[in-house]
What does this fold into?
Amino acid sequence: MKIDLTDTTAGKINKALVEGRRAIGTPAVGMVLTLVIVTDEENAYDALKAAGDASREHPSRTLVVIRRVSRTLRDRTSSRLDAEVRVGAEAGTGETVVLRLYGEVSDHAQSVVLPLLLPDAPVVVWWPVDAPIDPAGDPLGALAQRRVTDTYACEDPVRELTARAAAYAPGDTDLSWTRITPWRSMLAAALDQVTCEVGGVEVEGEESNPSCELLAMWLADRLDVPVKRTLSAGPGLTAVRMDTNCGSIRLDRADGRLATLSIEGQPERAVALKRRDTAELIAEELRRLDPDDTYASALRYGVDRLGGGDREPAEQGPVAVATPEEEAVKAPARRAAAKTARKAPTRKATAK
It folds into this structure.
């Protein structure tokens, strides 16, 4: 069921939610949290679809905040709130309210969102694009227990990570960190199988990929050893190699789907390590609402000690690395692709 409201108020939106639940025969509220998505019109569809898929695991009230650009003098001097209320099959397992803010009210989105929050339920704010440098200091971020950003959608992810470290507050997290959860689990499990001392680590992946940077930071923080960042043609994160006094441990993923785990003295094993979509990443983040101390430690340690890591071209291997001449030819196309990706980052934000 869908209800459109024009030039409305938060009180009328709450009334429409109650009427919608009664109309479909489910007056009880069985949602566990409020998910606030702050995005633009271009990326709203993809973000809402990901949230809807995640709601199968976490029934929630989803509030989509879209600040509309005022194109006329009348729009800039007047305030208006339009809303689209979805319940039942239109909203998955929860409720959805799409809020479009015009004029001065767009500068006070928190006053619109606050009356619509579920009572006595956690609040999570997610910025698929254009996240504030200080999420906890943002008026909407101040309402939430968890604040989710995505540095993969930024023009300069490495610089953005440095800013995130400086402004970190308990409850902050990033989908670039969520993407490396399977890698961290696999590497930790590999080290549990040996009684060796790690002397150095090499992380291989695409240039300026925030997930590669965060994995390097986490390994440096946990193992307290030198970590070298090398570049590959991708996709995303492609390999991790750990040098130990018992031989090397390697986790290689050249195709973005299947990885090979090699431990000295053991047979090679194929492990599933596919790149996950945004819905899976959001669902994982909604499973825990307490501060992620591991992320905070890795972020701060990495920025202080690694400074983004030393980057060297990767050697020829399963993933071919372009020569400087080839890079010069490919650079214009890569810049065009990056520009397109920044316009619709939620569509490309698959797991690393």
About this structure: The chain has two domains: 2-176, 177-352.
